[in-house]
Each structure stands twice: as C-alpha cells, then as structure tokens.
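User: Can you recover a sequence for this backbone? Please restate the input before giving your answer.

Assistant: Of course. Working from this structure:
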C-alpha cells in the first residue's frame, strides 16, 4: 500500500482513537456522546460506494438522530466519491460545506533556524492559561472539553511555546499507527510576526522524529502565511481532494 493510500486510510479511521465505532457493510459510524458538539467525533464515512447509497444514507440519519446527534458524513477520499454522493446528499436536504484545506506531508529536513526566545515544551494538561489562549482565538467551552478528553490518551500530545511562563503559541500532535497528525496550530495574535510560529513548527518536526521515529508527519492547511512556514519546515503538498462535510438538520432549524 502506497504511503498516500495508507495516510488517507489512517486519516479517515483516526476518530476511532477517541470515539466509538459502529460498523456497517458500507462504512463506519463514529460517535462520542460525551462530546456531542465535536464533528470529528460524530460522523459517518462510506467506504463502499458500489451499492445503493440511499438506504445507507437513511440508516446514517436514523443512527445519529436516535443518539441525539446531528447526522453528518465525512469523505473517504475515493475516486468518484463527490460525483456519487454529493448530489444525493443535496437532494436529501444535507448542508454541504467545502474546505479550502490541502494536505501537506513532511518530506524534507526543516530549513527553519529558530532565533526566537520562545521555549517549546510539552504541556502535561490543558491548564487555565492554555485554555485562555485557545478561547482568545475563538475556541468554545465544548471544544476545550473535547481537547481535555483527548489529552487523557497516550497518543495525544500538546506542545506549547512560552515566553517565561506565559504561553504564546501551541500545537496538537496525534500519533496514529505510523503517522503524526498536526492540528490546532495557534499563535496569540499580539505575538504574531515574531518567529514564534516558525520556532514551534520546527520544534514539532523534531519532537515527532524523537517521539515516533519513522512515523510520517502530516497536516491540513489553507492559510498562505502558515503554508509558507510549513514549506520551510519541509512539508510538501500532496494531491488529494479537499475535505468536505455534510450535515442533516431538522427543517425547523434551517434558515
């Protein structure tokens, strides 16, 4: 199996690390009732697109509504998936959202030469200062609770950059069967443009190499400024489709 195929397989199955899984002949339903607002914990994926998809979609809707969750579908990144699924989802009344994110995989040594005074270290837990940093960047209480739960697992590591004892940037690493997924990279607004983000990404690359030798580090990104940093750190874009998601809301909740 090629690296890209393995990576996509890891990506679409990664919610099983922090959510329950219901198997179906055509796919999987991921769910976590303790974090009902977390989309990444509560969605389905269709792997087999050869049969009739209408009954599968109705079963997905029923499953999540019976659990008090919003029915939601994520892509499996198969060839022809959009052509087969998206018109069906639209006809059934799903709201489809498209992401501008692209996939980047670490393939070369980092060219970043950190000069910033920020010190990068792993945070043992999401304390009040790190929580305040995330909230200042728009994360809500439900998102923080989801992150706290994920950090209880051995495969979820939070790295933070400090000026003295004040956190100014952070990134989340998830270790997933030969891969490291980088997400939630944040630098406090008032500290941007000072090299802290570059220093953080350089440290993340080194940390991943030490913590999981031979694993492949990857991320999704669309912000041009962030992408420039990732490229300097040795990431290269991979040619896969951009992510999308589709959610089904009761008619009374639609605008």
């Amino acid at each position: 199996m090629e690296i890209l195929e393995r990576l996509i397989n890891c990506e679409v199955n990664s919610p099983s690390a922090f959510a329950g899984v219901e198997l179906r002949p055509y796919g999987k339903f991921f769910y976590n009732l303790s974090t009902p607002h977390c989309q990444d914990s509560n969605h389905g994926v269709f792997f087999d697109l050869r049969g009739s998809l209408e009954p599968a979609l109705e079963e997905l809707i029923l499953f999540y509504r019976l659990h008090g969750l919003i029915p939601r579908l994520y892509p499996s990144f198969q060839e022809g998936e959009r052509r087969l699924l998206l018109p069906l989802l639209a006809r059934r009344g799903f709201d489809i959202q498209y992401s501008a994110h692209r996939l980047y995989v670490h393939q070369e040594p980092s060219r970043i030469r950190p000069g910033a005074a920020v010190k990068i270290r792993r945070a043992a837990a999401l304390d009040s200062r790190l929580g305040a940093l995330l909230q200042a960047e728009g994360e809500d209480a439900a998102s923080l609770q989801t992150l706290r739960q994920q950090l209880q697992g051995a495969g979820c590591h939070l790295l933070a950059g400090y000026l003295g004892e004040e956190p100014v940037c952070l990134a989340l690493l998830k270790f997933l069967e030969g891969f490291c997924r980088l997400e939630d990279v944040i630098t406090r607004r008032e500290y941007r443009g000072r090299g802290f983000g570059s220093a953080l990404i350089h440290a993340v690359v080194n940390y991943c190499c030490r913590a999981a030798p031979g694993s492949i580090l990857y991320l999704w990104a669309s912000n041009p400024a962030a992408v420039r940093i990732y490229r300097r750190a040795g990431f290269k874009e991979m040619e896969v489709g951009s992510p999308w998601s589709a959610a089904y809301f009761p008619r009374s909740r639609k605008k």
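That completes the design. The domain at 3-100+242-253 is CATH 3.40.630 (Aminopeptidase).
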